[in-house]
Amino acid sequence: MLNPSTLLTPPSSSQGVFAICSCLQMKLCFKYCRTLAQDYDISESYLDTNQISPSNAYSEKQDSSSSLQPRMQYLTKKQRKLAEKNPQSIYAVVDGALLAIRECQHQFEKRLWNCPTQPSNVGGSIFGRILNIGCRETAFIYSIMSAGVAHAIATACSTGRIHTCSCDYRLEQPTDEDWKWGGCSDNVKFGYRFSKQFIDSIEQGEDLRFMVNRQNNEAGRRHVVSETRKECKCHGMSGSCTMKTCWMKLSSFKVIGDRLKEKFDGASKVDAGNGWESTGNRASSSSNRPSRSSSDKNSASYLSNNFENSISSKNRKENDVKKINRNKLNFVPVDESHKIPTKKDMVYFQESPDFCTTSTNSKYKFEGTRGRECNATSMEIDGCQLMCCSRGHETETYIHEKTCRCSFEWCCKVECDVCRETRVRNICK
Amino acid sequence: MLTGSLLNYETSYLCRLYCEKMAGVILENLSTKKLVPICILLMAFSLTCFIIGGKLVPDPVHTQNAIGNWCKRQFVNNTEVKWYPSRGKQPCDRLDGPDDKRISTLRAEDIVFSFQYPLPRDNEEKLMSRWFMYHFAIVNFNIEYKQNNNPGENAKLKLIVSVGYKDDPKSDQWLTLHHEREVDRTLQCAPPSTLKDGYRWECDFIDLFEFGSMPHKQYLVNIRLPPNPQTGDNINIGYLSGIDLVWFAQTGGFTLYFMVMKTVFFAMILPLTIWNYKRVSDLNRPAVFLEKLSLTLAISALLLNLPIDWLTLVIEMKFMLLWSDIRQGLFLTVLLCYWVVFASEHMMDDVKRGQLSSYYKQLSFVMFASALMFVFDICERGIRIMNPFFTLWASATGTKVAKAFLGLAVASAIIYFLTLAVIVIKAIYNIWKKKSQFKFMAKGLQVHYMSIIYRFYFALMFSVVCSILTVAAFAMGQIYESRWRWELDDEVDVDEVGVVDGQHAWDVNLKDFKVTTAFQLGVYGTWNVYVMVMLIFYAPSHKQAALPVDADGNEEDERVELTSLSSGPTTRSRSAAAVSTFSTEDATDETVNLTSGQQVSDQHQAQIHSLSSRPSHLD
């Protein structure tokens, strides 16, 4: 049994890196992650040492240790390209993953499945095998990861850490003149686009699972964008509002997490819509899944190859239909009373596993709810009945030591008195 | 007999108004053939400004939201490191925000927020340019809601601000603009809509500084917030998760278009003013009030357009922002005065006007508001020339004073526009009423006066449109922008390369037409066009002297004038018809009388009396 407190502690940075590897790439990549984690830890010292050009950024690394190139091989080709094109971005991606994991654990602390992460030496994804199925929880992980990356990249643009954030993709090669002429400030859009390219690059298949993953990724990113607040300042003549300038400000990630949790609660189970032969595709996808965990090859291309093979036997006409439908996500909610999901909605296609059975838990590397705190008076999911899987709970009184009458310094120091009070808590058996 | 007297009264009345007071202006005497093209040309000018603003000019203001980097304050040999750049060859010792592991070992005064801007884009360090004209910044405190740690009401802030600059992007040497300036502000925050940990308090922006010019290439702002329990500075501010700095500058494209526009208008208005002045001074009578006011308007428009802005590209002119405010304020004041006088002069009632003192009631509101704004501006922007960190809004008293000033100014402006509306409506009503009486006139005379009336009607309407546009431009900022939400359209698809289609969702524009910018430049253009219209059409006409003298001479003159203007046969016949009516006994009698009245313009009352009595005498 694990102490619940350790489960809820914020993940260390190495976990975050691992999350990138295993969640974003769905792939086991120890070596890369460990090196990257080390990079991350030492990154404080060299991160901002004026590496404007990509060659600069990497030359220093090549001197100190092995070249980055071999490590990058664990990323897909497109991800590698992106990371090379945007030096420092990989660290923002790691930041984003950490942010996402922390938020996921915060959002799920009162549910059976509480977004547990595993130590990186266990193997498999940091979230366990839950990523291999297509349930609600999976949808949330995908969404929040995608959102975390978009948020972190946009933040890094605004702090000036990433030098390649772009003003406008419509112009082929923005010049200095364009900057003087009209300026630019669009970081949120860059974060959105980066996240899309980076994360969706491993979901480029046409089976329902990929479609669902892409949909959930998109939902996460879109929430980052739509929770961005417009702030305006009037600065016309004598401060009047004849001149009013607005800019975009990222919301705190907590807000995005809350919105995504709402979408999680309202997620609908979907089935493939028109032009799909859902059974065939689903069969092919489920046969693909187990093979990825140990594969050392590029998972996305491997999968898409497999996928190509599986559809090659089908007739061409059907393939064309799919091509047409590809850009338009086409889901049909299983429950017909549900609305067709919009781009901001989460979808799933498999029921969540029963987190109360030990066999499931061992499969998904979920520790179970033993030792978790529950709410004795609630009939909801945080209530002891549901939380403890009908095993019952123990009630104990304890003296709670709490800081009180604190005086804070805005960053660093807190001077508090200690107040003691007696509290009751319920713990699952 | 009654009709006769009415007719005479009317004729005399109109002449008194238009011939005598204005001594015959061009608007009245110009042939339609010439009038229409001039009007169309000027309208086209105004419209061009709108279209240029909407289509060609980029957004007027360049802004970037820079998130502060947390840096650790460093000492080398017991001397404090002066600059903390967030990137470059020697960046600061960067902390990972409030969650950094080292944070508990530090003191709050050891944390420096570093903003180095402009931010790099497209893999290169961007540089500021003199074309950006001005430069000001605000800071935004991101304070997260915590159950046990929240900002107090009106918490006192003392920011220790250093501003450095670099003109050579390759160098690593930051030069000092301001060092360790103490900037006192108050932090005013409203609780977040959802009282949950992690949500942000809604804090008012904090004005940091304002520079009236942009002479340097790169800027570095370092801010420290040392807590001081004795004075209460930086104590009660809650959980600070970061500081954002938003800087603003004019975009180069806007600067160019605006300066070209000013130069063009200056070049157009200057000769017109001289021409108008010559015409007025050539008269053998002192200029009437409206003429004097027209010239004042022209001079203030010249000041408004005076293209000294070009000099900022060469030399540093810190006073430009103040100067821009003053010249715009001056122009608006004169323009507002002009409207009231112009509309009142066409009221067609029998109230005696014609000098500044007759308008003191209406104009006092304008003057009052302008004076308030002027004092406010001198205090705010004037002091900022010396101390860029100064703002009236920083202290509680200053805020009260500033609010009182602005409140009074806005109230005066509202009263003014209500007054103006009343005057305009009265004028329109009177014209309409008088028009209905024209049917008693002889046909030719009726056509003549109708045409004059219509022309004045047009001038009045142009004034009204101009004032509505001015009000709309002021209201624009408030209403328009809030309609747009920062959201990707759900239907917008994202294509293969990740380009987001449907850019309209991101920008404040309608199908690529930037309404705000269009309004800004369009209204500016319309003001200038208005000034030109008034200068051209309200200049004294050379024809006026001939009209009252005698019927034959008048006719002669009219014909000559019309021929020289190469007017078509239609106009000529119409004018001829009008003129032939003039050569009746009545008209001659009238005009002779008016000639005398013109010289002694103060004797209206007597005049009217004598005029109305004359027909009966003639009978």
Automatic annotation (TrEMBL), chain A:
GO-annotated cellular components: extracellular space
PROSITE patterns listed in its UniProt record: WNT1 (PS00246)
Gene3D superfamilies with a match to the protein in the record: 3.30.2460.20
Entry GO MF terms: cytokine activity; frizzled binding
Places the protein is found: Secreted, Extracellular space, Extracellular matrix
Coiled-coil region(s): none
Biological function: Ligand for members of the frizzled family of seven transmembrane receptors.
Protein name: Protein Wnt
Organism name: Bugula neritina
UniProtKB/TrEMBL annotation, chain B:
Single Gene Ontology MF annotation: Wnt-protein binding
Keyword vocabulary terms for this entry: Developmental protein, Golgi apparatus, Membrane, Transmembrane, Transmembrane helix, Wnt signaling pathway
Domain Wntless-like transmembrane: 252-542
Protein name per its UniProtKB record: WLS
Pfam families, alphabetized: WLS-like_TM, WLS_GOLD
Keyword field contains Membrane: yes
Top-level taxonomy: Eukaryota, Metazoa, Spiralia, Lophotrochozoa, Bryozoa
Start and end residues of each Wntless GOLD domain: 71-250
Source species, domain of life: Eukaryota
Family in the record: Belongs to the wntless family.
Region (Disordered): 562-619
GO annotations of cellular component type: Golgi membrane
Places the protein is found: Golgi apparatus membrane
A GO BP entry: Wnt signaling pathway
Biased composition (Polar residues): 563-619
